[in-house]
Amino acid sequence: MNRKEKYKSKIKPAGEAMKVIKNGDRVFIGGGAAQPQTLVKSLVERGKYLMDTEIVHTLTLGVSPYISPKFADIFRHNAFFISEDTRGAVAEGRADYTPIFLSDVPKIIKSGLMPIDIALIQVSPPDDHGFCSLGVSVDIVKSAAETADIVIAEVNKQMPRTLGDSLIHINDINTIVESDLPLPEWPSTKEDKVANKIGEYVATLIENGATIQTGYGNIPDAVLQSLYDKKDLGIHTEMFSDGVVDLVNEGIITCDKKT
Question: Of the candidates 152, 179, 206, which is a domain's last residue?
């Protein structure tokens, strides 16, 4: 069986792909802008046949209907990061929060402390050698995909290929669900005078040639907007916002002085 034949043999409708999920399984869902929205919707539809299914992930930007109170006996949510759509469920005791450094999450997955039964991920179409890219969200997804008992991948034509250690071969994917959907986006923050003033104060502490780490939200965005008079900044961060990209394009972030 050649590569194209192998790829086609793994394709299933989303509903069919979800049938491998059993009661009590721990299901990892890729997060951020790479959340597999087609798979998530089908997972929830599969919910009427499930009980005590644990869902783990970090930041979610797409759909997350499993958070609804009506699914409380079906899906137990365990977040490594509390995003806006999960905050209420955690506060009400319908979901759990595991406080942990992002860099430590792959360790507990690979060590077996948190074994993954099913990994639902989103990837780019494969290249001529059969490698798909994890695209815009590699973070902990790579560890989950490498260790999960079953990997179900949503192959989205609109997922860009990213370079580096971000690839997964079709041989390591059990089931493929194809889609052609725009990726969810983090909305631009609204004008905030207080955040802007904080950003200006923080910017005075940042010297030329400094290495910075950024998050997301009003204050990090305001800090980035206040750095246009700096030179040769470095970046060491788990995420890139539009503000970081703009500083790279303007030649402010060069990483030339980074050690």
Answer: 179
Residues contacting residue 106 through CB under 8 Å, at least 6 positions apart: 140, 142, 143
Domain-terminating residue out of 179, 203, 223: 179
DSSP annotation of 253: B
Same domain, 199 and 78: no
pLDDT one digit per residue (tens) for the chain, 259 residues: 788 899 999 999 999 999 999 999 999 999 888 999 999 999 999 998 999 999 998 877 767 777 788 888 889 889 888 877 788 888 888 889 999 998 899 999 999 999 999 999 999 999 999 999 999 989 899 999 999 999 999 999 999 999 889 999 999 999 999 999 999 887 766 778 999 999 999 999 999 999 999 887 889 999 999 999 999 999 998 777 889 999 999 999 999 998 8
Catalytically annotated residue among 54, 146, 178, 238? 238
To the query of whether residue 200 is one of the catalytic residues in this protein, the response is no
Q: Indicate left, alpha or beta for 217 from its phi (over 0: left) and psi (-120 to 50: alpha).
A: left
Assess if residue 61 is contained within a domain: yes
- The structure's pTM equals 0.85
69 and 119 share one domain? yes
Surface-to-core class of residue 64, CB atoms within 10 Å of its CB (0-12 exposed, 13-18 middle, 19+ buried): buried
Domain range spanning residue 101?
Answer: 3-179
